[in-house]
Amino acid sequence: MIEGIVSLVVGLIGAVIGLVLGLLGIIVGIVVPVSIAIVVPLLVCGIPILLVMAVVWLLGWPSARRARKRAPEDMRAMRDIDRGLARMQNRLDSLETIMRDDTRRYSTR
């Protein structure tokens, strides 16, 4: 009787170990090669792309600082252009008024 129980326990332990090793075999046989087939190309392509992006980012960093420093100058230039356009509009309005007055003056004669 005890021998039967020991045999049953050993058999169950063997079955569990066999199941675990079978699952590990599936993982090692299928999942690992598939993940390697995905990860290796990503690393081969991704690392150079990341390096290029890092170089571009590092080289572009000073120009971003310059752009932030230049922003007030650009705003000043835009304000100057806006003022100049407003003055030009006032001049055009004045010229139109003068032309209308001249047209009225000469049309009444």
Report what the structure shows:
This protein has one domain (1-78). The chain contains one helix and no strands. By secondary structure, it is mainly alpha-helical. It has one helix spanning 2-107. 0% of the residues are buried.
Question: What attributes does this structure have?
Answer:
0% strand, single chain, 109 residues, 97% helix, mainly alpha, 1 helix
Distance between the termini: 139 Å
**Structural Rg:** 42 Å
Give the proportion of residues in helices: over 70%
The helix/strand series, from N terminus to C terminus, equals H
**Overall pLDDT confidence:** 85
Low-confidence stretches: none
Gross geometry: rod-shaped
Which structural class matches the secondary elements? Answer: mainly alpha
Q: Say how many strands there are.
A: 0
Give the count of helical stretches: 1
Kindly estimate the percentage of residues that lie in beta strands according to DSSP.
Answer: under 5%
| Overall tally of domains | 1
Major pleated sheet: none
